[in-house]
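Good morning N.,

You mentioned wanting to compare the apo and holo forms, so I went ahead and generated the holo version with calcium ion. This is what I fed in:
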Amino acid sequence: MREIKIKLQAYPFAFLATTLLIGTGNPASLASDPIAGCSGPSSTTSIGTNSSTAKFLTSVPAYNWYNGCGPTAAASVLGYWDLLGYSNIFDAAGDDVYLTPQVQDQISSPEHNAKYNPTPDNPNLPTPTFTSIADWFRTSVDPLNFGWSYLSFADDAFKGYANFRGYDFDAQNKRFSNQSSESLFNWDDLVSEIDSNRPLMFLVDTDGNGGTDHFVPVMGYDDRGAEGRFYGLYTTWSEDETIVWKPFQDLGNSWGVGYATFVRPLGSPQSVPEPSLELGLLFFGTVGVVPIIKRKLKSKFRFN
Ligand SMILES: [Ca+2]
Ligand SMILES: [Ca+2]
Ligand SMILES: [Ca+2]
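and this is what came out, ligand included:
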């Protein structure tokens, strides 16, 4: 039941891109900030399956869209690192890390959803304590409509949430370009990240209208020579999807690439046992402790 409802909520978003981009209600500082909220699955023509030249990471969890493509896509990247030893990223462990219901409250917390899913935001609810990826991503926060997020908070989403869970992560947003520079990224940068076993998050233009509309986790590249270059992604539109390949080209093309968020943990993996981390947080008086404990109690009732 839950999955069906989520998918239906995602479908109407395609038309919202135009509304928001030409709207006058956005603060000046954010008016030109690229955004995404998940266009519906309208143009998912898959271009080939995994070819012999493809290189991709196999252990990136695919999550079903949950209250925004930004936090959902970011969760796939972070879930990958949870499985690689940064095990306190999500409360789930092992195979459970692959299941959306097991991590959904850490993608977007119930408090965040209640306050920010409405348009305008619900003024009668308190500002939620930051406990989920959507909190740092500021997903659905006015002036954005339900499910939408700004690119400029994408790096904060990774760094802030990872830090909350006890880790130091670096994240950088970069514009797609055929050129090479610190603030831009090109094909070689994608290849370098995947060869270094680091998935990324892209902000793309699914309908090819020149405007960004969807965040996706990216975990592969494929140079097929004369046939072209492709990037491998999950659409975030189903629970158990496999990698999809799209041409690596600029905005204005179907699934054109606008931006990438590069994510890398700083330092070696640390397996922090969850009880000891919470104990540490208690000592330092961190405000997030109570929500963590509450969520664990809730998850026991909800999922077992
Ligand atoms: Ca875990
Ligand atoms: Ca809202
Ligand atoms: Ca678009």
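Residues 142 and 285 are 30 Å apart (CA to CA).

Happy to go through it together on a call whenever suits you.

Best,
F.
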